[in-house]
Amino acid sequence: MDLIGDTDLITRLMSATTLRAKVLAGNISNQNTPGYQRHDVDFENLLRQALETGSSVREVRPEVTVDTVTPAGPDGNNVVLEVELNAARENRLLFEAYATILQGKLGLIEQSIASR
To answer: Whole-prediction pTM value?
Structure first.
């Protein structure tokens, strides 16, 4: 078991959720800005693609993208508050899950050091 490599991946997942939280907050704060296009962070899908193609996951970085698919309102803004709030809740749950996993991994490392 590669605890250090696993820990690196988990901390990168946590960093991506932190970036996503900032992006979602920006979307919410711009919900009434005419012409604003919502943004999102893609990381988990990029990781999945790297795993499927056998590429190195260490090279994968989160990408902030502009959502051009969601229909815009009459003012050109495509932010829907309910969607953003739901995405923020989901993102928070992901962060908490990653933090719990990291805590468990660090606990294993601590136990192995203490048992020597």
So the answer is: 0.86
- Strands 39-42 and 63-66 come out as antiparallel
Query: What's residue 37's pLDDT?
Result: 97
Rounded Cα distance, 40 and 92, in Å:
15
Q: Among residues 78, 57, 83, which one has the least CA distance to residue 66?
A: 78
Domain boundaries, the chain: 3-114
User: Residues 55-70: pLDDT tens digits?
Assistant: 988 889 999 999 999 9
Q: Please spell the DSSP secondary structure of 50-116, one letter per residue.
A: HHHHT--GGG---EEEE--SSPP-TTS----HHHHHHHHHHHHHHHHHHHHHHHHHHHHHHHHHHT-
